[in-house]
Write a structure and sequence with these properties.
There is one protein chain. 37% of the residues lie in helices and 18% in strands. The radius of gyration is 18 Å and the shape is globular. It binds nicotinamide-adenine-dinucleotide. Nicotinamide-adenine-dinucleotide (NAD) binds next to helix 1, strand 2, strand 5 and strand 7. This is NAD-dependent epimerase/dehydratase.
């Protein structure tokens, strides 16, 4: 089986690449290295084909059985800085969709739980998103387009709404990294964690290993559609700080600042029923185990990102 991973030098993408190689796939990666880093592939670089480029150039990699599309600008501030990226993300997605139809490839693509911003939890796939941000404005049309390509041309696809993904090897994302990684890094550096507002915002923390499993399960499933990838449990930023501090055995310093981001996501917490029943996807790693594993990894680095 041949797989393509767009954004394969990124946090989630590089972990998908690693698992695919373990399962015997032949893997090609396309990544523009905007937030990703080839260091994320350093132990497996000689086992894959790598092309530096935009996801729109996917055809240059030849035929594949399955495409994992994660090569999309990955954070809200990136789109706020350049909102024309909304159009580019959608246009590149259409190139990926056309590629999949031409090559009869199944598509598994990254969507986001940010799509639920403004709705009370638990968040279920049936709600009609109220778009509150440029980042979300780029994701919602992708989901609709995938469904349209299914209706028109028989595309086989799963769009995965990731919740708050954390784990090892997130250092290339720097300020865009998950709150858990940022707390660990600040704790290791003995510096203050900046908290927007009172720290009551809640996130459904899902470990990278479970996210990779969701991708593999989706790629083999006969189901099509949009699926949540979360645990169903949420933690406030304050609770995360307490948890990470407890695992590290130290008090993490914090500084509360006014939230500079309008329409910041207040709470995300997955309704996991559909992904359990239709895909058979169950998370296996709880927050304590996942945070400990991430911490063990970050301790092996010579230095962790010193952000802000
Ligand atoms: N990490 C999370 O908590 C989370 C939550 C919801 C959704 N997502 C989505 O999952 C995907 C992967 O996120 P991640 O956390 O691994 O972030 P990441 O920034 O590490 O990964 C994105 C990768 O894609 C590359 N890239 C960006 N735009 C590209 C383009 N136009 N063409 C080719 N490559 C491009 C980047 O260089 C990077 O390697 C993103 O689409 C992100 O929005 C992530």
């Amino acid at each position: 089986m041949k797989a393509i991973v767009t954004g394969g030098a990124g946090f989630i993408g590089s972990h998908i690449v690693e698992r695919l190689l373990q399962e015997g796939y032949s893997v090609s990666v396309i990544d523009n290295l905007s937030t990703g880093d080839k260091k994320n592939l350093k132990n497996i670089e000689n086992k894959i084909k790598f092309l530096k480029g935009n996801s729109s150039e996917i055809s240059k990699l030849g035929k594949s059985d399955i495409v994992f599309h994660t090569g999309i600008y990955s954070s809200t501030p990136i789109y706020r800085k350049d909102n024309t990226l909304v159009g580019k993300a959608i246009s590149e997605f259409i190139d990926v969709l056309n590629y999949c139809i031409k090559n009869e490839s199944k598509l598994v693509f990254a969507s986001s739980s940010s799509i639920y911003n403004g709705y009370p939890p638990p968040h279920n796939e049936e709600v009609i998103p109220k778009v509150k941000d440029f980042y979300t404005e780029a994701r919602y049309p992708m989901e609709r387009l995938a469904d349209l390509f299914r209706q028109m041309y028989g595309l086989e696809y799963c769009g995965l709404r990731y919740f708050s993904v954390y784990g090892d090897r997130e250092e290339s994302k720097k300020t865009f990294a998950n709150m858990v990684s940022q707390i660990i890094w600040k704790g290791m550096l003995d510096k203050e964690v900046m908290i927007y507002g009172k720290g009551t915002q809640r996130r459904d923390l899902v470990n990278i290993s479970d996210v990779v499993s969701a991708n593999l399960i989706a790629s083999k499933s006969k189901e099509n559609g949009i699926f949540n990838v979360g645990t169903g449990i949420s933690y406030s930023f304050n609770e995360m700080i307490e948890k990470v501090g407890g695992i590290m055995g130290k008090r993490i310093k914090t500084k509360n600042i006014e939230n500079p981001l309008k329409n910041y996501v207040d709470i995300v917490q997955a309704d996991t029923k559909k992904s359990k029943e239709k895909l058979g996807f169950f998370t296996k790693i709880n927050a304590d185990e996942g945070i400990k594993a991430a911490l063990d990894y970050y301790k092996t680095l010579k230095k962790v990102p010193d952000i802000f």
